[in-house]
Amino acid sequence: MKIRPLLYLTAFVAAILGATASYLALSVPNDLRADALLKQARKELTDGKNEQARESLSKVLLQYPRTDAAAAATVALSSLSKKERDDLARAISLLRSQNEQQAKLLAALQKSVTDVKNAPPQVVTVQAPAPKPAAAKKKVPPKKKTPPKKKTSSKRRRR
Q1: Cα angle for residues 83, 88, 90 (degrees, 5° grid)
Q2: Given 15, 107, 116, 121, which is the most exposed site by the fewest CB atoms within 10 A?
Q3: Is the pTM of this model over 0.85?
Q4: What sign has the CA pseudo-torsion 108, 112, 114, 115?
């Protein structure tokens, strides 16, 4: 009767080996595909294609949730989100500082326009240039009148 426990032990070991083999046969291709998608997503991240990388990482999470690549995709997605939030915060702070500068400039311009508008009218006095001293004018004798021309009449005889 020593054979019966040996048979049970052999069946149990065979079942464990079969389950392990089937698990590996089913999960290894998934791991390989998930790793390939993860590598593609990392390449897209280095190329600056954030939206495509986000889609690839999401696909890894949805299709292969129980793989190491899914854990890495989760970390990559969270770091990508953090990076985008930081970039957005920097852009917002830059826009706020530009807005403050423009507001200061507009206030200064408005103040100068108001000052010009409310200033009393200025009286402008223009001085005429000093008269030149009169030079000794020479008396010009008046022009002589020319005598009128004599009319010469010639009478024609009629015949």
Answers
A1: 95
A2: 121
A3: no
A4: positive
